[in-house]
């Protein structure tokens, strides 16, 4: 019914703008005629969101039209006949961003705000805009989130996650534009936010570049703190209550941290594809999309860069990972971010293309690689001003829609997966130290282990401080997993996990996996149900420890490591498909099974550890000829091995999934469904539930959103389930729409579990297609 | 960023054009690709900055992806060598895949290690893990590099720190490099003690010795 494309909606009309004075902005009247559409009006009434806006139109519009001179600069023209004076603009924004209830912005509100932002939003409202547009303010005000941040902050970081070290390394390299004394206080806050996020979601954890994102958000949250005080009395009641409650018990000064945290959470978890920062597959995909769009839209420049040998996707990587905050000056990039929060990822693409367009003159002159690099590095920082940049993004040739990007992401995924597969199958011919280190680096927590022990006075510390040879031999003494850690030390697939299975570790009991974690409403409900007493010490995590399932596994692992045995170092399961969650899980299980069942472990048990000196460094001294010959044979062998992985029986996995499903049906539906009853009978009984999964009302909504979904594979009992859920949760809360894409994936996963292999791959694929929220 | 030597370059249409590189006019200039690698926070960017711009910037930012520098080195015999230096990000997630890969002429996807004539593998003397991980980096070079003669150098950075902060002795580093038959340097990007100029000077002459003129053409 509605078109929401840039060029015809809520947009500055250039011709009119020229007629009027320069600072004035207006909407095309056409776009707002849609307000009179009775259905939309009704919708808005229901939401209660547009009431104020409509009011202000009537009150101010008609009055002001007579009083205000049309050509007065800074006036803001809303609709054909409505001109807002600066006072009215403030009134308007104040109403919309500060006084209104902190809910997600509607499409119309976004449109209006977009027009404001294109002109350049005043500093004073930026903080509120970010909070509202990202959905953070809605999250903050949920009752179960009130102490969430502070609780997580209090949690000790007592497991060896390498992210914590990386955060510490990058803190002092974030605010390079500020003076040291100024940044000191920010650094502490930055550390808190990043560390808390790693605790919240260890799968995504910390990735270099995030420090610039959080740094920027924190700065904005602080910069408007002073103006907050005067407007604080206007802010909503709920917010005030929340503040005063928390103030009494905790440090008052971390409100900006809390706000920055939730904005960041929403950015990473609902505005971006979920594998953007977790294993960076999302970034690689976007990088490719960017290159293609660049080639399509500015072909002559692309050709020129190609000739010189410069690949723009190399630079696009920086732009994408840091949302342009790395390369643009602060005052420009915050304004770009205003639009990003309102419109989503497409802004990053548009602005990047516009940047290249603006630099075209300079770049075409460049004849050398280094000149191009220099231009690209310095030009955006010095010569770009916001107005030109935004006007350039509005050119027809840079029009790109979020749904285009979504579509392209789906398209590119396969190619990227292929490339990554090749990466996994690299030559692996080295023995001794090389091989051991390479093997150990596969384990996510390994590099964090050393740093953790560094500050402790224990035997472990000594082991790590030994010279390399001794260290290698004694490493296994301290290479022990602790089942209290949220990540298993032996989980070499960890980096590949998708945060769909985020869960809470509440005790040493089997972990609860909450599939729709990102639906806060549902989440609180589940926690309460599970363990009400320990609600406050919850750490969200992924926590699956397979290592203690078979006691022989760890023992055999250590013995084989000390003997540098091929069965361990050259295990085919270590070469899992990097972009497939299911396959990697399969590989991990298979790996553990093989090691645990290793035949003839006895003969190695008492053998002495081979000195690494004897096996050391074949690699560096091997002549290139030898290398080549080994590579070719080794490669064949590995390819065979890889094929074998594919053929490994699906038994274990399927069983697990079925048990899962059974659990879902048993737990969540008191009245058993006929289909699940059949399912149950066909399965062996499970002694203890490992997962507890729930379906939520939200799936209904998400289904409507993803209308093009394959309907055939949807089984009957799932539909029944949904109907039932609808009764349980009749609340249709718009807040969760932003997160709905995640639920979609969770749903897909469940569907996959149900249908088994029938069309299962389709659903698996869908796991990765997590689109931006429907803005 | 890349503060590049622009002497005599405007006349050359493209460095990638083989005719120009081997042409008579440019006979004296050769090109070599050098990659700077090592764990995060060991000071790779600082080393590059000290070498290119001769200064140490305390307000550094952590590298995202990779950046690029270029500098000419002249020898006593009048010839010179232009070093293309790729400064890579050490972050664990970046190492895995993304920035190592880029396109040449929009067709071939290659990684940053390909066609590299030399690699400077850095560790920090304040971090013993970064020394241990050098083996991993060397392994990566062997895996992804395609020039068998590639010159590798082990560099221990931050030699200026207090004894109390030091975790890796000079001896230990030396021994480590010796065992692997690699040249070893200890440098300080903070102090202007010439250690980094010496490093690149020696590296350049080593490159010149090991590679023929034909091999030293530009492959960015």
Automatic annotation (TrEMBL), chain A:
GO terms for molecular function: GTPase activator activity; small GTPase binding. It comes from the Eukaryota. Signal peptide: none annotated. PROSITE patterns: TBC_RABGAP. Residues 120-344 form the Rab-GAP TBC domain. Gene3D superfamilies: putative rabgap domain of human tbc1 domain family member 14 like domains (1.10.8.270), Ypt/Rab-GAP domain of gyp1p, domain 3 (1.10.472.80). InterPro entries: Rab-GAP-TBC_dom, Rab-GAP_TBC_sf, Rab_GAP_TBC_domain. PANTHER family: RAB GTPASE-ACTIVATING PROTEIN 1-LIKE, TBC1 DOMAIN FAMILY MEMBER 2B. This is Tbc1 domain family member 2a-like.
TrEMBL record, chain B:
Residues 1-10 have a biased composition (Basic residues). Gene3D superfamilies: P-loop containing nucleotide triphosphate hydrolases. InterPro entries: P-loop_NTPase, Small_GTP-bd, Small_GTPase. Pfam families: Ras. This is Ras-related protein rabf1-like. Residues 1-21 are annotated as: Disordered. The gene is Contig14191.g15124. It comes from the Eukaryota. One of its GO terms (molecular function) is GTPase activity. Keywords: Nucleotide-binding.
